[in-house]
Each structure stands twice: as C-alpha cells, then as structure tokens.
Amino acid sequence: MDVVVVIAIIAGLFIVLGVAEPLAGRLRLPYTVILALIGIVIGLLASFFLRTELTDALNPVANAILDFPIRSNVFLYVFLPTLLFQVTLGMNLRRMADDWVPILVLAVVAVFFSTLVVGYTLSLVSGMELVACLLLAAIVSTTDPSAVVSIFRSIAAPRRLARIIEGESLMNDAAAIALFGLLMGFVMQGVPDPTWTGALLRFPGLIFGGAAVGFLLARATVFVMSFFDRYEAAQVSLSVALPYLAYIAAEQMLGASGVIAVVASGMTMTVAAPGAISPTSWNNMREVWTLLSHWAGGFIFVLAALLIPRLLQDVTLVDIGLILVVAGAALAARAVILFGLLPLLTLVRLSPAVERPYRTAILWGGLRGAVTLVLALAVTESLRVPEETRRMIGILATGYTLFTLIVQGSSLRWVISKLRLDRLSPLDAALAKQVIAVALQAVREEVSETTKNYDISHDIARSEAKSFGERLDGAVKEAENSEDVLDRDRITLGLVALASAERDIVLERLKERAVSSRLGDRILSDVDRLVEAARQSGRFGYRRAARQAVGLNLSFRIAVRLFNRARISAPLGRLTADRFEVLLLQGLVLRDLDGFIDRRIRRIHGRRVAELLHELLARRAEMVEQALDGLRLQYPGYAEELERRFIRRTALRLEKREYDELLEEGLIGVELHTDLMHRLARRMAREDRRPALDIVLQKAEIARQFPLFSELDDATLQRLSKALITRYASEGDMILSHASVPETVYFIASGAVELRTRGVSYRLGRGELFGQLAMLTKSARKTEVRAIAPSTLLALDERRFRRLLRRSTALQDAVRESAEKRGIKVPYLDELQEQREVKSSGKRTKSPGWTETREEDSHDGHGKEERR
Known about the structure:
- By secondary structure, the protein is mainly α.
- It is built from 33 helices and 8 strands.
- The strands form 2 sheets. A 4-stranded antiparallel β-sheet has the order 1-8-3-6. The chain has a 4-stranded antiparallel β-sheet with strand order 2-7-4-5, with no helix packed on it.
- Mean pLDDT is 77; it is low at 843-868.
- The chain crosses the membrane at residues 6-24, 31-50, 70-89, 101-122, 128-152, 173-191, 203-224, 256-277, 289-308, 320-348, 360-380, 392-416.
- Its main location: membrane.
C-alpha cells in the first residue's frame, strides 16, 4: 500500500477522534459507542463502494481502508501496552489498596467464574467443544469500563466507585488475557477437554514471571531517569519505551504474561518515579501518557470496528441465538458476583460495602470493547485454530461486543437515571440552596466594587443591582426555609469542605516543591481518607482518619521489627525521615485551614459548626505537634535542618517567580533569563536532596536530655550511649508480659506506655523508666506493659543498670519514688543508701563507678577487668 495513502488514512483517523468526542457529548452517548459506530459505518461504506456499480472513483479509498495493514499483533504489541500503562500512571494505588477486596473479586474471581459459566453454558447449548467455548468465554470476560466511568464522573459519583471500576478494568484485562493465552494453547494443540491441573501449574509462572520482568525493568528505568534531572524529554522518552520493552521481554523471552509485565511496570513507576524525578517532570509525563492513551484507545476502537462487518458477514439466526445465550450467561455470572459474593464478603467484614444502586450500574455498565475485538481477531487470524472455531469465536465475540455497546451502552444513562444516581442527595440539594445564597452575596460585593472602578452609569448599575437583589433575596429566603440540613449534617459537610481545602493546599505545596511528589501522593491519600471518612461517619470518621494519618503505617511497623530484631536500620531511617517531612508539611497545612474555616465555612454553616471545626483542627494540630516533639527528642537538630531546607526551597521558588515576572515585563532578555534559570536549577537540585538521617548515632544526645542522667559527665554519657539499645514500639505493642522477670530496664525517650499490675494501671511518659523494680527484687510480678502511643525506648541490661544505679543518686531517687508509690520494698536501694551515708560521713570506702570494668561493657560481654 502506498505510504501516502497510509498517512492519509491515519490523518482521517485523527479527524474521527476529534469529531467523536463532541458528538458523543451532544448525543449523550458513551464515547466508545460513538467510536464503534463510526468504525462500523466506515467499514460498511467501504464494502458498499467496492461492490456497487454506481461509481468506481472511491474504490482505491475503499480498498485502502479494508486492506489497511494492521493485524491483531499490532493491537496487542502497540495499543494495548499504551492503554494499560497509562491507567496505572493515573491511579492512586494507596487509595485503591483500601478497596483491594472488591477490585480483586471483580477483576479475578469474576473473570474465572464468568469464563466457566459462559463456557459450560455455551457448550451445553451449542454442542461445540468445551475448550473452544471456554476460549470464547475468556475473550468476552474482559470489560471496558471507560463508558461507565465517564458517565459516573459526569454525575459526580463518589471517587471510590470510579476507583473500583478502574482497578477492575486494569486487573480484569490482565487476568482475562493471561487466561486467554492458556486456553488458546489448548485450542491450537487440539485438546478438546483441557486438564485444569496443568493450566493451574502454568498460571503462576505467567503471573509472577510477568510481574518480575515489569518490576525489574521499571526500577532500572527509574534509576536511569534519576540522573537526567534537567532533561524532561529524555525522562518522558524512557517512560514511553518501558511498557513495550516489558511486554516484549515477558512474552518473547520468558514466555510469561506481557500484560502482567506492563501492569507491574506501571505500578512500579507510579510508586518509585515521583521520588526520583521532579514534580514537574512527573506531571508532564502523565499528561503525555494521557494523550497517548486517548489516541491509542480511539484507534483501537475504530480500527477494530472496521473489521466488524467482515467478521459478521456469514452470521445466521442460530448465531444470533447463541449471541443472546452468551449475553445472558455473562450477565448472570456477573450478577452472581455483584449481588451474591460481594454482599457476603461485606457481611463477614472482608470487604467494604458497595451500595446496591452502584452494583446495578456496574452490572449494566460491563460493556465489552476493543480488547474483546482484538482477542477475537487474534483467533480468526491463527491458521492453527480450526476453521469452524475461528468462525464461531469471530461471530459470537463480535456480536456480543455489539450487543453491549449498542443495547447496554445506549441505555446506560437511562439506567443510571432510573437508579437516581444522577441526582443530588437531599442533603446536597439543601446545601446547594445555602451555597448559592452565600455565593450571590459575595458576587454582589464584587460587582458593586467593579461598577465603581469602571465608572458605569449609575442608572444602569442601579437597575442591574435591583434585578440581582431580587434573585439574591429569593435565594436567601429559600435557604432560610430549608429544614433538611441538620447540625450533624452541617458538621459532616463542613468537614468534607475542610478536607477538600486541605487537598488544594497540599497541591499548592507540591507545585512549590515544598515536599516531594512521592510524599505528596501519600499526604493526598490521607486527605482522601479524611473526605470519605467524614462522608461516611461524620466527625468520628474524621477523627479516626486523622489519627491514622499521624500514626504508623504497615511499612513503618515492618521497618521497626527489622530494626528491633535484626538491627537493620536503613528502612527505618528512610521511613523516619519521610515521617519527619510529612508531619512538618501537615503542621504547615493545618495552620492555613483555620483561615479557611472563618472565610468560607462560617458563612455557609454558621458559627457553631465553625467553632467545632476549629476544635477538631486544634486536636489534629496537637497530635501532629506531639508526634514531631517525639521525633525532635529522638533526633535533635534534624527537624531544624528540614525546616531550614523548607525555607531555602521557598526562597528559591520566590526567586524563580521574580525572574519570570522580570522577563514578562521586558526588563531582562531571554538569554539572561535562561542563564538565571540554569543557575537556579542547579541550586534547586541540591535542595531536592533531603539530608540523611542516622537513627543509630543519636543515643548520646537522647541520653543527655534525660533528667535521670543529669549527674553523669560527658565521658560516662558516651559510654552509656554505647550500651543503650534503641527499641521502637508501635501503639498497642506488648513490651512486658505477665509473670516475666525482666532482665532489661527501659527508659522512655518518647511516647507513652501503660503499666498494669494487680488491677491498677499507671501511665508513664517521656523521661520515665520501667522494669527496674522486678529486676531489683528478682521476682516475677503480675505486670504487663503496653505502648499506648508510638514510642522510642532505650534498653539497658541488668549488669549495666546496677552499675549506673550505684553511680547516679538521681536514678536511685527515681527508683525509690516509684517503689514507694507501688508499696514495694527494694533492699538493694537500702544498701546503696547506707553506702551513701557512710561515704558522706567521711569514712574511706571504695567508690563503685561505671569505669570499674570497661572491657566488660562491650557488646559481647567478654573481657578482662580493668581496675582503677
């Protein structure tokens, strides 16, 4: 085919994409439905002009369209990786993890269940070989959620619902295509009844092999990107190469799933890249991939739809009946999962609830699209597949795709309307009246000021003000007469607005590079949790989500265990530095929110709600400050260095803005501006590197701040710090259990613990110690100690503690006071008291000290005594 003709067809496809989206909006139909219809019409017109005798002028164009050099492998190797990779880049994986159960159920369990139901049903009805029917069932089990997602977003449906559908589409394609590959192998080998044992044994290799390839290639790509800070185009180019290399490497080199490799590479890129490249580069990369995905999705739909007339040219009434059987079985299988399994998992608290109207919309919105057509095309092109099987799969898969696009797609908006998903809730409807009233009041003030500034005629201004005033009075009266918004609901809506404002502030801080994109995504995920928790459970949900945002996540707990048990400090050091940075940003953001409450929320919801929100915000700020105080105590100077870094980065941002304004005003030339930007970029790159945090070498500074160690000189403190062992405890961790004889004394560097003994509980905080009484009395006491907040403890073994106790009178007084409070007699303290009295009376006695045995104080506990 002539190159000019190919280029002309591609240009025509771009025109189709440009026209289809506005047309879909005007016709209120899903965009994918319009693309499919346009492709079918083009294919029918091309066939018509080739066969008609009316004119031969369009025959070259018709031949070029029908013989366009594109096959299923082009779809699979070019378009499919683009679509899958872009979906992962646009996902909030942390928030999606909250709904991993319904996502996996819909994406994996539903695919396998639908494959079995459709395959066995079709085999019973048609009498065809089971393996061919299962292959067709795997092909039609892939859903295209773009239509239902776009409609849900247009009606402002909850973000959580869109996340579930997007997550389902990503994992759904991966699972279905992997299953398709297995069954395709059975069909080409002529196996009529597959042995599921062999298939199940091969499936893990497909999944884990593809995941490993995608992960390793993505990590290597991110590593290379980190060296190209000043070259955004190079970073974007590397990202474009990644999914195709991952797909080819997995499919051709390892025989694993290329789809899984692409998904794994995209997820790895989403997690790792924001911390390795600048926020601007990351945002630009995602924008490029959004455009590439838009083109790829449009091309794959139109080009696949062009083939529909050819695939359906030999359709019979029996085939139409079988298409309806496939449609009925697929809907039934999906309904069983949505209305049977998901509610059951919710009942046993394994999955968050998905409301019935949304499940109904998901059921009817399970459209099949481009992936189904591509897989069917791959079967029809394989000469190793029997001809009858090729014909059957081509017709039934194509017919079922058309059924979902035309019947379900065209009626989807009507179904959503009947489910009342396109209407505001009574609460939002009542709130809208008040929002309109407040907004119109602000508009009136602005318009009044504008008319004065522009010296508009007084009569015109008065006439328009009267008309606007009537509208404002009506809005205010309607808002005052609304009784649907209760105080409880006002608080909930105020909290949602507060969390939304927090999200906007975090986004601004991200643009200012006050925090890295990786940590910014984590903070945005926490804010999203605040929004959803407030919507679902009001102030109680908001408080719970706020505590989670300040608390320690699973990664931190794992790092703590690694440090406590294996003394591996690197993960804990990195996560602690992340925690420092996140808490500092949270503190800055919370200060800005007080003004938002007074400026906006008070005007809509009133003084009482505003005061309550101020109180909730103050509690959050207190939690953040307490967590920061604990970190500052553990790592003196590090928080100060981060704050200094924040100021320096803010100064650089302001400096850049000043240079840009000078350029716009013509006060400096482009050459000078470019040179200044290069200098500024080098300084920004230096400030982007966060200072390292050494969590091991801080014990001497921590010990120095303990009042109990105030009598010790610097040399003794240095030796003490070497003997102390740092231990971290998360909230709820058991430190000492019942009936145990402690061999270690714990000093609380930060946090708090609760000590329970004989039905009485004591709370100990920073600077206090525990475990010493049972150790000194050598008795197993019915005492347990549990952390009630994230805590850092300094542990000292018995031998060193006794020597320290002999040396420090302040420590003796603290132990004695603790014993008297609990009514415990400690003879060892009396012995020490007698020694002190003898020494003070002037009698000569040997003064036991910490330096009595230095070599014994080494970690292995061996060595000779070194006497004074």
